[in-house]
Amino acid sequence: MTSSRATTAVLAVARRAGRYARRHPFAVGLTVLLLVSGLALGPLRGSRPAGIGLSPLAFGREREWWTPLTALLVPDSWGGLLLSAVLALTLLAYAERLMGTWRVVSAFLVTGVLGGLLGLGIQSLAWSWGQVWARIDARGAVLDPSIGIFGAILAGSAFAPALYRRRIRLLGLSLLVTYTLYGGDADSVYRLLAALAGLILGVILTSGRPRPAWYRSSYHETRTLTAAMVAVTGLGPLIVLLTGVGIGPLAPVVAGLRGVDISGITDACAQNNASAHCVAGVTTAVAAGTGVVLMSLVPLLLSLVAAWGLRSGRRAAWFLAIGVNAMMALLTGLSVATRSLREPTDVIEIDRQFPGFSVLAILVPVGMCILLAITHRRFAVRASRRAVRRFSLTIGIAFVVLVATNMILVSAVSHSPSFWSSLATTLRRFLPTIIGRPSGHTPLTGIALALHRDVGALFWLVFAIAMVALLLGRSRKAADDAERFRTQLRTTDGGTLGFMGTWEGNEHWFTADGRGAVAYRVVNDIAIAVGDPVCTPGDTAKTIRGFLDFCDANAWTAVFYSTHEEFAPAFRDLGWKSISVAEETVVPLERFELTGKVWTKVRQPYNRGQRDGLTTLWTTWEQLPAGLVAQLDALSEQWIAEKALPEMRFTLGGMEELRDPDVEILLAIGPEGELQAVTSWMPVWREGELVGRTLDFMRRADGAMPGVMEFAIASAALHMKEQGLEVMSLSGAPLAQTVDGDADADPGITRLLGWLSRVLEPAYGFASLLRYKGKFNPEYRPMHLFYADNGQLPAIGLAIGRAYLPNASPAEYVALARSLAG
Q1: Residue 793: phi, psi to the nearest 5?
Q2: C-alpha dihedral over 80, 82, 85, 88, to 10 degrees?
Q3: pLDDT tens digit string along 405-452?
Q4: Is the pLDDT of residue 286 over 80?
Q5: Neighbouring C-beta atoms of residue 218, cutoff 10 Å
Q6: pLDDT tens profile 674-706
């Protein structure tokens, strides 16, 4: 029995491998060819003597016509084979699915050959300038299949959806540029040139395809990409340390941070910068000493910590990333200005002969600072004051203790101890060697010597750990309040839209007896209460009055936004006014049917979806398979990228809200497993029971079946009906309504809202959305803005606008204005 199961498993794996090979014949075939050529020609058997035997096949001194091709088909090491195989079986295979086999073969050959020839020309010119990376001999021969693979991948990115197009291009080019600037070997230059050629080729191949001129990212995707670029550009020190190659224009900065004394190697490099002694000496210097190696890794460590925090939108991580990149730019600028780095002579000569390298080395971290400045609105999640105090106290104590300990050690071994000389010697240990060079000799031994040499690295390690704690820290009160508000929703009644109060960015207020709650956010000293007060009907007036007193104590102007009409009497008793700002569409599930004439517009797409083989999956984010998560991300980013308008928030959820464990998701999946549409459904609780769900997130894929959203919503309604739920809310559409506004509203305000609704319609289509929801024969429930004074309306309007567009840039407002004008 066991043998039978094993055989079945092997056959299943073999069938999947066969299907994969049939779908990606070039990617699989190239991987096999590289393995065979590597084994047959020697480098993978370890029989290659210093690269001499394969130079006729490589880019290098041998200028035979076949070398541009053979250099792309033979790996020079196990590492090269592994890199090429992984890239071929993943990203190149993806490009093959997008482009087709023959196009990806052509892209591999064209970009690989072109990148190699361009690189060889640049290499020849650079060698005439004496640059060590460009030596053209057997040692400098290039055998690297990844050159053509990177070119084909970048060409294929032009065919990818917006999400993967951005990720492949930004992260791929960032990694290639970083590797070139730090490593600086010929292979890196060839790969970068091939990738740039691939970008151009992709544009040519897709020139006839319509596409927007500019691609917008969601807030989550902007954070992810910025974090990834910060991490990638911080990998330079690790590249130098792991590869032993550090002759790029940014390598001197790493050498300076290491503080490695390479006197004695300099003479050999000065005499012949391509000598084996020079190269071996620089490589040896890279690995010298634990403390200096740790100091050289400080930028990498801090960059990774910053990237991790940026992905969560943390403002502290933004400041850290700015600080690291600003310091790298400062160090590079000082190295160019003062020539104070203890660096190999060949690097100095490169800089003298081609000053552009120095400028480029400075522009990379400066460019990252500019990128972070542009995207700063996306990183607005602040740590609590308690977490900031704990962080400051931790690093302050660590700094004082380490400085004091090291000063005692310095004073103990110094011939002329003084406080200021001991302090200066100690502080140098915390700084890169470009600012202060600590002496290399001390009579200290054992633990004392280790502490003295590694005190700087130890401090930065403590700093990194404390920063991680700061980024993890969230106000305990905010977390407790959010959970308490969710519990209040469950046990009382927050209405069909109450769950919006749990979203990120909202704060929560509770009555003294804990029987009422209000979710709100403060914008420009306007406290905007979101949705209905969460309380039992008998506590409505007390809850509203208590919240108003709370706002008055904080000098805030209180308003209630998207609040249902049944709360109007409580506000009229206060003398408040109201404006109808939206209508919610609610479907009682007991009368949801797909029979009869009134349901024709829903029944027909539902039946068509069943005939076309569409299936549905009702799930939560945590239960989603990885493949569907990737498709959902791509679908959402494509939807956002196609709109030249800011993404609205506040009462309109995005991808972040899908991750809530109480939110359920319905996916419409095509017969080939492709995701065609997605809807998300927030819970509606009443007195501890789930009584319904409210539609929030809606996306459909390009090329999906016509009527796929009707199919998805109808499927969700049938599923909820089977669960015994009472109500399905299709949510509201801002500034859209089917009836006249409030009778007691100011006529001027009513006319203004009507005009604003008409103007915004081409941009956001709220009225069209309300008409679309009418297909489901809903009940219409007006929602209001309740406020105290007409004179406050301009400030209230600005605050609500900022709540909907919290991170919109000036360029996005310009795009919105153009859309409205058009």
Answers
A1: -60, -40
A2: -70
A3: 777 766 665 555 566 666 766 677 776 554 444 444 454 455 555 566
A4: no
A5: 20
A6: 899 999 999 999 888 999 999 988 888 887 888
Q: How is 648-688 classified by DSSP, letter by letter?
A: P-TTS--HHHHT-TT-EEEEEE-TTS-EEEEEEEEEEEETT
Q: What is the DSSP letter of 291?
A: H
Helix (H) or strand (E) holding 111, with range, is helix 101-128
**Please, are residues 144 and 80 in contact by the beta-carbon 8 Å criterion?**
yes
**What amino acid occupies position 686?**
R
**Prediction pTM value:** 0.66
Tokens of 438: 């600590």
The answer to whether residues 336 and 354 touch, using CB atoms and an 8 Å cutoff, is no
Reduced 3-state DSSP string for 400-415: HHHHHHHHHHHHHHCC
Residues 6 or more apart in contact with residue 409 via CB below 8 angstroms? 444, 448, 451, 452
Residues sharing a CB contact under 8 Å with residue 602, sequence separation 6 or more, in sequence order = 594, 710, 713, 714, 775, 776
pLDDT tens for 571-600 read 988 888 888 878 888 999 988 888 888 888
Q: What single-letter amino acid sits at 714? A: A
Compute how many other C-beta atoms are within 10 angstroms of the C-beta atom of residue 594: 14
Query: In terms of DSSP bridges, do strands 675-686 and 664-669 run parallel, antiparallel, or are they unpaired?
Result: antiparallel
Of the candidates 126, 399, 163, which has an alpha carbon nearest to the alpha carbon of residue 273? 126
Nearest alpha-carbon partner for 667 in 681, 657, 659, 678 = 678
HEC profile of 698-729: EEECCCCCCCHHHHHHHHHHHHHHHHCCCEEE
How far lies 721's CA from each of 497, 606, 662, 715, in Å? 19, 16, 18, 10
Backbone angles phi and psi of 661, in degrees to 5: -65, -20
- Interatomic CA distance for residues 331 and 425, integer angstroms: 20
* 733: phi then psi, degrees, rounded to nearest 5: -125, 115
d(CA 731, CA 766): 12
Task: Collapse the DSSP code of 218 into the 3-class scheme (helix H, G, I; strand E, B; otherwise coil) and give the result.
Answer: coil
Between strands 727-734 and 689-700, the pairing is parallel
303, 215, 336, 312: which is closest to 634 by C-alpha? Answer: 215
Q: CA torsion, points 649, 650, 653, 657, in degrees to nearest 10?
A: 110
The position carrying tokens 């209000």 is 518
Q: What is the C-alpha separation between 771 and 308, in angstroms, rounded?
A: 43
Give the Cα separation of 548 and 575 in Å (integer).
13
252: three-class secondary structure by DSSP: helix
* Structural contact between residues 571 and 578, judged by C-beta atoms closer than 8 angstroms: yes
Assess contact for 315 and 382: CB atoms under 8 A: yes
Q: Which of 341, 375, 387 is nearest to 361 (CA)?
A: 341
Whole-number Å distance between alpha carbons of 415 and 90: 62
